[in-house]
Amino acid sequence: MNKIARIANGTLDCLELLTRRDVARLLRLCTHSVARLEKQGLLQPLYFNKRVVRYRRADVEAFIARASGLQHQAEEVIAK
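Above: the chain's sequence. Below: its structure in token form.
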């Protein structure tokens, strides 16, 4: 996990960046599945070069929230 500071609108904003392995651990997936989610447009990566890929923690948490919402909706449909 990396933290990078950036200045936006005169304020210091700290971005918490995760590696593909970090994201895989959070999502309980393998790194290949994380890459697949990226290719499907479900996760937005930051490329620093061809080999260095990072993900914003806020983006990953938003993905988890969307995914859990979809899971909840599917459970409601099945229960009906």
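The beta strands are 2-8, 11-18, 45-47, 53-56.
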